[in-house]
Each structure stands twice: as structure tokens, then as C-alpha cells.
Amino acid sequence: MAMNIKPTRSELLNLKKKIKLAKNGHSLLKKKRDGLIMEFFEILKEAKTLRKEMVEAYLVANKSLNIARTTTSELYLKSLALAITQNAEIESETKNIMGIRVPVIEKSGEIKKSFSSRGYGIVSGSTLIDKAAHGYEEVVDLAIRVAEVEISMRKLLNEIEKTKRRVNALEFAVIPEMEKGASFITLRLEEMERDNLSSLKHIKNSK
Fold first, then answer.
1. For residue 154, what pLDDT band results from cuts at 50, 70 and 90?
2. CB-hemisphere CA count at 13 Å for 94?
3. CA distances (Å), 191 to each of 75, 181, 186, in order?
4. Options 1.10.287.3240, 3.40.250.10, 3.40.980.10, 1.10.3210.10; CATH of 29-166
């Protein structure tokens, strides 16, 4: 850079302005990076809790289903599952976290259903079957929430990495290079000033 800039006062002033802007940008990006990291760890904590709850709910639901299998056939259980007609739908919206759009999954209809809304009726079903159905509805509900927070985590992590690269580029490349250029101009101006003074003295002494 030092070899490609003009050693003038106007160039020095312009470079100093750029350095100041770059340092301000660097400071803001560092704050953004730190804020994103804090948000990431908050969501990570939530994701770990939800995933643990989901695994535990799955184990309970699976156990309930295995107990239900002891009282009825697999084919009958499948026919009851197909009797459910009121399926919930999900829609994905977004919210803003420090300028990053992350998903918010909205459910239209209930994932967790009441006994009467499952479609197989009181006569066809049983307490054991209903308990298993409720258990798997709980798993699905938690899986949706896990998906939401884990997608948010990935988006935040990607933004953290991008911000870190920009911070490092400014800190270790852009700003040092501009400061090197400013130092080069300052030295050249000082040399020119000394040369001018020397020339003036020489002219004065020669008169």
C-alpha cells in the first residue's frame, strides 16, 4: 500500500478518516459478535433442554405403545392411527435477533388432541392406546420446538462466523495496512519538510 499512495497532506487526512471509520466499524462488529455469541449460548441451553425432554418423551411414548401392543394387534393399532383425520398444520414465520431472521414455527390446530378428537372413538380405543397416542403427540410437539431452536442456532452460528471473519480482517489486515500507509506519508512529509528547510537555508546562505 505504501508504494501506491501519494505522500500528500490531503491523502494523509483522507487516510486518517478511513482509519477512524474502520476502527468504529471494528468496535461495532465486535459488539455484534459478542451479542450474537451470548444469544447463541442462550438458545443452545434451550435446545439442550428441549432435546432432552424430547428423548425422554419418546422413551415414555414407546413404552406406552409396547404396553398397548400386549392388549391388541399391530394391524388394529395401525387402523386406529389411520382413523385420525384432524391433522395439525405448521407454518414458518420469522423473528429478528440482532438483525438475523430466525424461524418461528406456528401450529394451526392442536398437536396434542383430546380423546374424542382422535377419531377412533371410545369403543374402538382404550386407555392404554390413548396414553400411547398422547405420548407420541408430546414427542411431535417437542420435535417442532427443537427444530425451531436448532435452525435458529445454525443461523446465529453462521452469522457469528461471518462477523468474526470481518472483525479479524479489519483488526489484522485492513487497519494495520492503512496505519502503515499513514506512517509512510507522515515520514515522507517530514522528509520533504526537512529538504525544504535545507534548501531555504542553502539559498539564504548563498546570498
1. very high
2. 10
3. 94, 15, 9
4. 1.10.287.3240
- The residue type of 4 is N
Question: Rounded to 5 degrees, what are φ and ψ at 103?
Answer: -75, 150
pLDDT digits (tens, 9 = 90+) for 70-121: 888 888 787 777 766 666 677 888 889 888 999 888 876 666 666 556 555 5
Cα-Cα-Cα-Cα dihedral sign, residues 97, 103, 109, 114: negative
